[in-house]
Amino acid sequence: MTEPNSHKPPVPSPSPPPRAPIPQTPGPRASRLNQVFDQALARTLRANSYANFASCFPTPARHVPASLEGVWRQLNAKLEANAKAEFEDIIAERDAVAHLNELDRLVADARARREQAGEGEEKERIAPHTLGAEDLYKAHLTPYLQEAQSTLNARLEATHAENAELAQTVQKQRLEIERLLSNLGVVVSDIEGAATAASQFSKENHLRQDAIQMDEEVRAQSGL
């Protein structure tokens, strides 16, 4: 004789299953953030073209174009490397990829549940005590949906704030370029001033030698 409870199915756990781990591979929003940053950095570098750079320093561009182009390339390379490193540090520090992926999941989840709720509203209203277990379970999801919406709004605001910080970082990099260009202009002015002074000294020294030579010639003729 078999026991009556020997073939009972296992009772499911009342606790919800754990959430799947959030992938670190950039999703739609994280990929779009990287794309926006790359486009902004590319526009900044294009604005600092060699033609614009050389127009600020016509004398070196005319006499030492190769050296000036080397300075321009180093400046752009340093700007690009610093901007990318700082962007990657911000992404890692804020765990932006995981947060944006979670935001994608919440948006998709909220959209699917909103569609389900819209379909439910079209049905005829039924008294709660006549609903089945599954319908009651769905009805209890409303507070969770409201909480998810609040979380979604908060994370959207955080994303907007991070985008504003990135824009400020790009602006600071542009100001750094202008400062470097200004310092380079001062150095070039000093070099040109030194060259002018050297040329003037050489001319005055030549006149002094001519005067000494003429004085010696006059003395030689007087001795005769």
Largest sheet: none
What's the end-to-end separation, in Å?
157 Å
What is Rg?
38 Å
H-E order: HHHHHHH
| Whole-number total of structural domains | 1
Tally of individual helices: 7
Q: Beta-strand percentage? A: under 5%
Q: Class by helix and strand content?
A: mainly alpha
Compute the average pLDDT: 77
Say how many strands there are: 0
Description of the structure:
The model is unreliable at 13-18 (pLDDT under 50). The chain has 224 residues and is mainly alpha-helical. 6% of the residues are buried. It contains 7 helices and no strands. The N and C termini lie far apart (157 Å). The protein has one domain. Residues 7-26 have a biased composition (Pro residues). Pfam families: Nnf1. It is found in: Chromosome, Centromere, Kinetochore; Nucleus.
Task: List the defining traits of the structure above.
79% helix; 224 residues; single chain; 7 helices; MIND kinetochore complex component Nnf1; nucleus; mainly alpha
